[in-house]
Amino acid sequence: MKILANDGLSKSGIDALEKEGFEVLNTKVAQNQLENYINEHNIDALIVKSLTEVRDDLIDECPSLKLIAFAGVGMDTIDVDYAIEKGLHVINAPEASTISVAEMVFAHLFGMARFLHSANREMPLEGDSRFRELKKTYSNGTELRGKKLGIIGFGSIGQEVAKIAIGIGMEVIAMDENIDSESITLDFFNGQKINFNIEMSSKEELLKDADFITINVPDQDSYVIDTKEIEEMKDGVGIINTSRGGNLNEVALVNAIKDGKVQFAGLDVFESEPTPEIQLLMNPDLSLSPHIGAGTLEAEERVGIEIANQIIKLLK
């Protein structure tokens, strides 16, 4: 059987598949050429990430496909229900990148709290001529210890975010419409473990009390944070979105930053990916990254192995 890893797959994943007799084509085919390539090479399984879309028309025109895999968590670039209706297996690796995304939340959060996102822009340009002025400007940061972190969505990623927050002394306020409470375990390097039970709060309580808010839910039908939600937040709040761009109203965010309601925000995802709006890219109060929350070497290895094992089980 032939597998096209159109957006790449880790070496460990490829090795596992090849060991079981699969032929893996680890190449990048342009979206407009994908249909022809799949049919010409009689591809049985297609592995994609967020850069490749697998819509119903592609599924209809590629009868050789038996399986579609998303090498990560979200599958919004795949018409999942339609593919299943047509008899295809659709899989992903929901747990593999959890730690990486949670750490990205705090990469933005630590940087914003100490204005590194802005200082890193100005130091290369004016660090030699305005050093003392910049020092004064950026010496009014804030510590995270003792602050309240609001976590919207308490699935696997939200729980990992909570573990880091608790580890550095933050108070966790979590909300999730699907659960009432959740027990999480902090594992330490020396084998010690500590269990915490987190009771869910209402969205209203979270918005009112949190010093920082992070969005950790799948793609939603409407904004998770819009103008109304921002108005309910504390003045000077910080917002982090590593989930999906459509979960946060970017226009409302920019307006709130301009009005001083929101102090800063960290964005790893954007409504108009892969071409974020220029008003976001040029805003000095935004900490930005190009959708790389899951993009670590460790996560790639885990994703590759998890996807390979599922394919072997389903198609072997």
From TrEMBL:
GO MF, one annotated term: oxidoreductase activity, acting on the CH-OH group of donors, NAD or NADP as acceptor
Domain of life: Bacteria
Residue span(s) of domain D-isomer specific 2-hydroxyacid dehydrogenase catalytic: 7-315
Signal peptide start and end residues: none
InterPro entries associated with the record: D-iso_2-hydroxyacid_DH_PdxB, D-isomer_2_OHA_DH_cat_dom, D-isomer_DH_NAD-bd, NAD(P)-bd_dom_sf
Keywords attached to this entry: NAD, Oxidoreductase
Domain D-isomer specific 2-hydroxyacid dehydrogenase NAD-binding: 107-293
Record-stated family: Belongs to the D-isomer specific 2-hydroxyacid dehydrogenase family.
Protein name: 3-phosphoglycerate dehydrogenase
Taxonomic lineage of the native organism: Bacteria, Pseudomonadati, Bacteroidota, Flavobacteriia, Flavobacteriales
